[in-house]
Request: fold
Amino acid sequence: MHRFLIRGAVASATFVLGVACVSISAPKLRSCVIDFTDNQQSSPVRKTPPTCEPVYDANRVKQLTREHDISDFPEPDDRDLFRAFQELPLYAMPDCVDEAYSLTFLPSFHPPVLVRVWRVGDQSFLAAKRLDRPPGRFGNLKESNTRPLTDTEWRDVRGRFGRANYWDLAETVNEPLMNDGAAWILDGWSLRKYHRVIRRIPNNDLAEISKRLIQLSGLDTAHDVYLP
Reply:
């Protein structure tokens, strides 16, 4: 009888600690490990980490971005651009994201496209979105898909950024002004460091990164029309 009461007390304590652990860890979307064993060396109880997916927050975007000017070609920090895509800026990723990259493709005569890949622990994911009208007065989200990335796909994308010396590139360079063209915006986030590269005429390395991200997205785009 005495042994039965001890086991009951152990089970109750494990439940209470589990509830407390989930409550503490939830705001940061991190896993919490419980290792509470009885005298018979039973296996530890472990909580599986929840999925970490960046979620659009209109108030947060309003704080970080600028108001849209209809006379301008869309800029990287355009508030309406993020509203239309229902996306956070890459530099506003939640703490649970370890590394992330994104392409924002803004063509003159076709709907804008955004492709984001991110890494959480040993898992990688992709989110791809396309709007319903060309830039100017931004429309609404027309197509969206999210899926896990394989380790091979993640390494391929990350390797392309590395071979392009992405983190050492200037944000902008002197380029010819074109009435008809596209903006290619590549954002990176790693080790709490943010970088952005904007091109109207991407070099071969940046063009290959962009094409690979669009290929992985599965979206039907007109990107080839805007590449040299």
The longest strand covers residues 99-107. DSSP finds five helices and six strands in the chain. The chain has two domains: 1-50, 58-226.
